[in-house]
Design a protein that fits this description.
mainly alpha, 2 helices, about 90 residues
Length: about 90
């Protein structure tokens, strides 16, 4: 039962972090759309359209990594629990 509690706590924290990062990604996507509509991209490295696309891609990749990590933790916990029961 202790492993289940530990996993539950880790997942709750992971889900909260994931949700917060997803909200940030959505906000950044909206900013990108606004810049696209108004042709408001700059010419500097940090505010060019390519920089924005790279930034969004990095956020998406980070979310995917978080989700995959949570899935892996669930699988490993399930394996550990099954081994304890055997």
């Amino acid at each position: 039962m202790e492993k289940i509690r530990e996993l539950s706590s880790l997942l709750e924290s992971g889900i909260e972090d994931y949700d917060a990062q997803m909200k940030m990604l959505q906000a950044e996507r909206l900013k990108y759309i606004r810049l696209s509509i108004t042709d408001g991209f700059g010419t500097e490295e940090g505010d060019s359209q390519q920089s924005w696309l790279l930034h969004l891609k990095q956020l998406e990749d980070s979310l995917t990594l978080r989700l995959n990590s949570m899935r892996q933790a669930i699988r490993e916990a399930a394996d550990a629990i099954q081994k304890e029961e055997a």
